[in-house]
TrEMBL record, chain A:
Protein name per its UniProtKB record: Phosphatidylinositol glycan anchor biosynthesis class F
Location in or out of the cell: Endoplasmic reticulum membrane
Keywords (A to Z) from UniProt: Endoplasmic reticulum, GPI-anchor biosynthesis, Membrane, Transmembrane, Transmembrane helix
Gene: Pigf
Residue stretches spanning the membrane: 9-29, 41-62, 83-101, 113-133, 154-175, 181-209
Single GO BP term: GPI anchor biosynthetic process
GO cellular component terms, A-Z: endoplasmic reticulum membrane
Membrane topology per record: Multi-pass membrane protein
InterPro entries assigned to the protein according to its UniProt record, in alphabetical order: GPI_biosynthesis_protein_Pig-F
Organism lineage string: Eukaryota, Metazoa, Chordata, Craniata, Vertebrata
Automatic annotation (TrEMBL), chain B:
Pathway: Glycolipid biosynthesis; glycosylphosphatidylinositol-anchor biosynthesis
UniProt key word Transmembrane helix: yes
Protein name: Phosphatidylinositol glycan anchor biosynthesis class G (EMM blood group)
Pfam family, one: Phosphodiest
Subcellular location: Endoplasmic reticulum membrane
SUPFAM superfamilies: Alkaline phosphatase-like (SSF53649)
Main location: endoplasmic reticulum
Membrane topology label: Multi-pass membrane protein
Gene Ontology BP terms: GPI anchor biosynthetic process
Gene that encodes it: PIGG
One Gene Ontology CC term in the entry: endoplasmic reticulum membrane
The keyword Thylakoid is annotated on this UniProt entry: no
Key words, A-Z: Endoplasmic reticulum, Glycoprotein, GPI-anchor biosynthesis, Membrane, Transferase, Transmembrane, Transmembrane helix
């Protein structure tokens, strides 16, 4: 039971990683002069679109162990709208956090906002897909001993690693190496992406490694 | 021996201060020196080389110029003369450079770009050490060989007008002088008219050989209003007029005497974009050097891009021009265009003299000098020269000989250039032995601190320090003997001078005793720790106390910051590290508040808030009500709210607290852009200080002073409250008096004074408040056993310091002070009290905020950002001790005030912490401050040949040393206040026993 769960998790994560890699490789066939550094904003949009769509696909594929409650269409629509609003709110609040961290207020607004978008793609979107627009559940998952399944556990790990990646990505900015990727916000977005991918890789391994110790309240 | 952890920490930091002092003395090297004593009778000049024989031209060549006038304009940047400003405001100088008989250069000054080391460099031709900055303010007489001394020895009559530093550097050298003091930065007309008023008379007289004028006005304008101020234009025009006056006077004199004279225009250093100087940016380093003389060729040339030379080249050139021996320690090379029109034989002779002097200096300072490329080139040039002289004496002067001569001259020039480069590189020679001793002392003290950390974290108030057994152990004596032996061996074998060896034997022996005693203490502490841990493992399993997220962040952040000090960019942009860490801390705190608000800890929060008004209210009760509130978020405390709604308010305030702090930090960050990358970007501070926004600045300053009053008066007694209010009004009056601010009823500019009366008025209140605070503190320690009295006393001391800071900070920095108080209030009310952090965590948070505020204020790890004007507030003559104290306090306002707040907070919360909170906080503070210093010392030692060692790492080292000194003082004060408990307990037990 647990082993199969972990396997599913692993496949799902591989899909997500694949989408990130695809967003790097695929556009160069269609767009001229595409590269992550030069046309960074385009890449940001494409990457976040890919990741969102993969997450949605994973969400729509019915999971074997969750008994899907039949609910009315209007309920689904409001839920979807709520999710959209949550996503936007998270984008804007992340933008505010970046500005508080010292991002320029007036210049580079688009860059900062797209960074907020991609970071919320890596963090908020999986949360929305898995937990729904339910703040209580979010807080529960992100506190000590609050996780109830391996899915939530992996969600915790990927989200935290994305944030940590973005946070670490800010470190090279003051260095005087004069590299193109030191420009705001490229190092941070790259950091966030690496953090996300690392989280995707690490979490199944970590869960597999600790499968004996992990006991969830519901299991 | 048992020691309170406060006493222990304070003594450890004191020992570290000693170690850092020894390290600094070894790290900042003495400059390249000639070993022959300077007072010594001048040795004969090197004779002209002649192949196969000895030349009969052994005397020094005759002077090229009969008179020399040096016009030194302080902080004259190269673009003030060569750039568009020069063309606009200095038309005569531009004419001279373009069409007159002149040679213009850009002379590169070496950091530190501060006046005194630069004057030394100009006159001795050597590079003074970095430590000269510290000695800048009281310059003792110059010991090294220099042009002025040589001129005096040659019987030249010299006259000096201008900066007093010269008179101190060259006492009794001038037949006539008038020194003006440079310490009133806001005065920029009188300092210069004091110089110019003598000019008329002196130029008419002919009884002098050298006239030196040092104009300070431009530098003062730069400090006060920056390089783009319109005042700069006026000043440059004034200087241009003076140059014209001097030049025409010299021309008329020349017509009488028929011998050419020399006019030198130079600057000692440049001026950064903020108008300051001290660092190594291009604006600070590039200074113009214009030589004008009728002996020069008139050649129209491109004056936009003059040749780049070294500032040290002037000394050699002046010496040759005036027929003097070149100063022994000079590392400069002759500016060749000056002698270009002399006969070839003379030219070569000059170059040879310069080469001999440089190669002699190289021989005395570099063991392997023979392999130096410069030296090899020089030997070759000397041989060619000898041949040339032989040919010259034999045959008549043909064109081929001239060609050969030019070749020799070229060879000489390249040799000179290589030699002087090699010498200037050689300046960085370290006294490794002293550095090692200092490092060992610091590391030992740090190890002791680290070893006792587990005990302190387990809330033990007193530490077992095994002091007496090691003092009598065999190990101690062995160590002492070994160290003494090493000392003797090192000092007898060392070739270069070593500071530690020059100490008297008793002092060195004392240091040895200290080192070996510390080592023995560490050894026995380690041994005991090992034994303890085996005992513990037997008796109980380890109680695994998990770190909280905030605790982990504090630990990781500190480690990360310490590691970042190894990269020059991170040192330059250290403010970014602190802002980043403080922001992350706020986010972590916000996450913690969220969690305790929404989940689980619901019981704890309301409980805390019920107790809160009791503790704060106790103090506020005696005073009027409105005063109790912080302007933001404090509404919750207001009287008649129903308690349920009130609790809700407070909880929301708790949630919003970290975000408010974040917003405040963001605002402060845009107030002063510091560091290297950000310094040029426009910021609010620049906008406010520009002349056209005086009204806005005045409003902002008044508002900030109001906020400061509202927040600082809360904990004071009534008398101090009144004193604080009057003092803050006095601060505003002071700033109006010196012309920074405006009264609303006096919008037109009025006369600017030094504001001595107003500043002293404020000082009276500062001293009054501090005195009241000290009195209350002593009372609480000796007579009254009440922590409330102590809390009030500490707050009074704190608000006295706030008032002093308000006086010293520049008006556009007053919001920094206001926000500092505001953040302290928010953090205290809504974060530290409800969340009940550990003492160690609170201490580290205070330290982080203190560091961030150090940079918010506009400081950086660059000497140039020190606001020296703080040292002259309220003083009408320069007094070294008060000026130093005020400047240091003005620079370290942030860390000092946050440490003061920490003391007050712990005392106010004495009920929720254990009795030993204060001394444990002192320990943590000592530890957190000494870890970066110790690490940095090791890093700097390993990076001592780094390219940026002088421009980036050395200033930071000075800052770190100063910070450690301040930490030591703070720790001593902490320990003194935390002694209360002990003395009182002692008195009580004594009473009980009787
Ligand atoms: Zn100067
Ligand atoms: Zn200056």
């Amino acid at each position: 039971m647990k082993e199969t769960d972990i396997k599913t998790l692993l496949y799902a994560h591989f899909l997500c990683i694949f989408s990130v890699i695809l967003s790097v490789l695929l556009p160069s066939f269609f767009l001229e002069n595409f590269s992550i550094l030069d046309t960074h904003l385009t890449w940001l949009c494409i990457c976040s679109l890919f990741v969102i769509s993969i997450n949605l696909v994973l969400y729509l594929v019915p999971k074997p162990n969750t008994s899907s409650k039949r609910s009315s269409l209007s309920h689904k629509v409001t839920r979807f709208l709520k999710c959209c609003i949550y996503f936007l709110v998270s984008c804007f609040s992340l933008h505010v956090v970046f500005v508080l961290y010292g991002a320029p207020l007036v210049e580079l607004v688009l860059e900062t906002f797209l960074f907020a978008v991609i970071l919320s793609t890596f963090t908020t979107v999986p949360c929305l897909c898995l937990l729904g627009p339910n703040l209580k559940a979010w807080l529960r998952v992100f506190s000590k001993n609050g996780v109830t399944s391996i899915w939530e556990n992996s969600l915790q790990i990927t989200t935290i690693s994305s944030f940590v990646g973005a946070w670490l990505g800010a470190f090279p900015i003051p260095l005087d190496w004069e590299r193109p990727w030191q420009v705001w916000p490229i190092s941070c977005t790259l950091g966030a992406t690496f953090g996300y991918v690392a989280g995707l890789v690490i979490s199944p391994l970590w869960i597999y490694w600790n499968r004996k110790q992990l006991t969830y309240k519901n299991n | 021996m048992r020691l309170g952890c406060g006493v222990f920490a304070a003594s450890c930091v004191a020992i570290e201060v000693l170690g850092v002092a020894i390290f600094l003395r070894g790290f900042f090297p003495a400059s390249v020196r000639s070993s022959s004593p300077t007072g010594h009778q001048a040795e004969p000049p090197a004779p002209e080389p002649l192949a196969g024989a000895s030349s009969n031209w052994t005397k020094l060549p005759l002077p090229l110029f009969s008179k020399a006038v040096i016009v030194l304009i302080d902080a004259l940047r190269d673009d003030f003369v060569f750039g568009s400003k020069g063309a606009r405001y200095m038309p005569f100088t531009t004419y001279l450079m373009g069409k007159g008989p002149s040679h213009s250069f850009v002379a590169e000054a070496k950091p530190p770009t501060v006046t005194m080391p630069r004057i030394k460099a100009l006159m001795t031709g050597s590079l003074p050490g970095f430590v000269d900055i510290i000695r800048n303010l009281n310059s003792p007489a110059l010991q090294e060989d220099n042009v002025i001394r040589q001129a005096k020895a040659a019987g030249k009559r010299m006259i000096f007008y201008g900066d007093e530093t010269w008179v101190k550097l060259f006492p009794k050298h001038f037949v006539e002088y008038d020194g003006t003091t440079s310490f009133f930065v806001s005065d920029y007309t009188e300092v210069d008219s004091n110089v110019t008023r003598h000019l008329e008379k002196v130029l008419k007289r002919g009884d002098w050989d050298m006239l030196i004028l040092h104009y300070l006005g431009l530098d003062h304008i730069g400090h006060v209003s920056g390089p783009d101020s319109p005042l700069i234009g006026y000043k440059l025009r004034e200087m241009d007029g003076i140059l014209m006056k001097i030049y025409t006077a010299l021309l008329t004199k020349e017509k009488e005497t028929l011998s050419p004279s020399l006019l030198v225009l130079c600057g000692d250093h440049g001026m950064s974009e903020t108008g300051s100087h001290g660092a190594a940016s291009a604006e600070e380093v590039r200074t113009p050097l214009v030589l004008v003389s009728s002996a020069f060729e008139r050649k129209p040339g491109d004056i936009r891009h003059p040749t780049q030379v070294q500032q040290t080249d002037l000394a050699a050139t002046l010496a040759i021009g005036l027929g003097l021996p070149i100063p022994k320690d000079s590392i400069g090379s002759l500016l060749f265009p000056v002698v270009e029109r002399r006969p070839m034989r003379e030219q070569l002779r000059f170059l040879h003299l310069n080469g001999v002097q440089l190669s002699r200096l190289l021989q005395e300072n570099v063991p392997a000098y023979e392999k130096d490329p410069g030296f090899e080139q020089f030997v070759m040039a000397e041989r060619l020269h000898g041949n040339w002289v032989k040919l010259h004496l034999e045959e008549d002067h043909s064109g081929a000989l001239l060609n050969l001569g030019t070749k020799v001259a070229r060879q000489y020039l390249s040799a000179l250039k290589t030699l002087s480069l090699a010498l200037s590189m050689h300046v960085a020679q370290y006294d490794i032995y002293s550095m090692a001793v200092g490092t060992i002392i610091v590391l030992e003290a740090l190890t002791l601190l680290l070893l006792s950390t587990p005990q302190v974290l387990h809330r033990r108030a007193e530490l077992e320090v095994p002091l007496s057994p090691p003092m009598f152990s065999l190990l101690f004596y062995l160590m002492f003997l070994v160290l003494s032996a090493i000392h003797v061996v090192v000092c007898t074998s060392a070739e270069s001078s070593c500071y530690f060896c020059s100490l008297p034997w008793l002092a060195a022996g004392g240091v040895m005793v200290l080192v070996s005693a510390l080592l023995c203490v560490i050894a026995s502490a380690l041994a005991r720790m090992v034994m303890d841990s085996t005992l513990l493992q037997k008796s109980t399993t380890h109680p695994c106390s998990g770190w909280s997220e905030v605790g982990l962040l504090l630990l990781l952040g500190t480690v990360g910051h310490v590691l970042s000090l190894g990269a020059s960019s991170f040192v330059e942009e250290e403010h970014q590290t602190w802002y980043f860490l403080v922001n992350t801390l706020c986010l972590a705190l916000s996450q913690e508040t969220c969690r305790s608000y929404f989940l689980g800890d619901n019981k704890e929060l309301p409980h805390c808030f019920h107790t809160e008004p009791a503790s704060v209210g106790a103090i506020c009760m005696q005073q009027d009500h409105i005063a109790c509130e912080a302007p933001k978020g404090g509404q919750a405390d207001k009287g008649p709210c129903p308690s349920g709604a009130r609790r809700g308010h407070v909880r929301w305030a708790v949630l919003a607290g970290p975000w408010l702090v974040l917003a405040c930090c963001r605002l402060l960050r845009s107030l002063n852009h510091t560091g290297v990358q950000g310094a040029h970007r426009p910021d609010l501070g620049h906008w406010l200080t520009s002349a056209s926004h005086k009204m806005e600045l005045s409003c902002l300053a008044a508002l900030s002073l109001l906020v400061i009053f509202m927040l600082a008066q809360r904990g004071c007694s009534l008398v101090s409250k009144v004193a604080l209010a009057l003092g803050l009004v006095g601060v505003f009056c002071y700033r109006v008096a010196i012309g920074n601010l405006l009264f609303p009823w006096q919008l037109t500019n009025r006369g600017i004074s030094k504001g001595i009366l107003e500043a002293r008025f404020v000082y009276v209140f500062v001293l009054g408040i501090l005195f009241t605070g000290t009195k209350d503190l002593l009372k609480s320690q000796v007579i009254v056993a009440d922590f409330k009295v102590k809390t009030v006393a500490l707050w009074e001391l704190y608000s006295g310091l706030v008032l002093l800071a308000a006086l010293l900070l520049r008006p556009h920095n007053l919001p920094v002070l206001a926000f500092s108080l505001l953040i302290q209030t928010i953090m205290t009310k809504f974060i530290w009290k409800p969340l009940r952090h550990d003492v160690a965590e609170i201490t580290v948070m205070h330290y982080w905020f203190g560091q961030a505020f150090f940079y918010f204020q506009g400081n950086s790890n660059n000497i140039a950002t020190i606001d020296i004007s703080a040292g002259f507030v309220g003083l009408d003559t320069y007094m070294e001790i008060p000026a130093t104290f005020l400047t240091v306090f003005g620079t370290y306002v942030g860390p000092v005030l946050w440490a003061g707040h920490l003391a007050h907070f712990l005392s106010a919360e004495a009920s929720s912490y254990s009795d030993s909170a204060m001394s444990r906080a002192c320990f943590c503070y000592a530890l957190i401050c000494s870890v970066p210093v110790a690490t940095y010392i090791v890093l700097v030692t390993s990076l001592r040949y780094h390219l940026f060692i002088w421009s980036v790492f050395s200033p930071k080292l000075l800052y770190e040393g100063m910070h450690l000194l301040i930490t030591a003082a703070l720790c001593v004060l902490f320990t003194a206040t935390s002694q209360t408990g002990h003395t009182r307990a002692w008195v009580k037990t004594g009473a009980r026993n009787q």
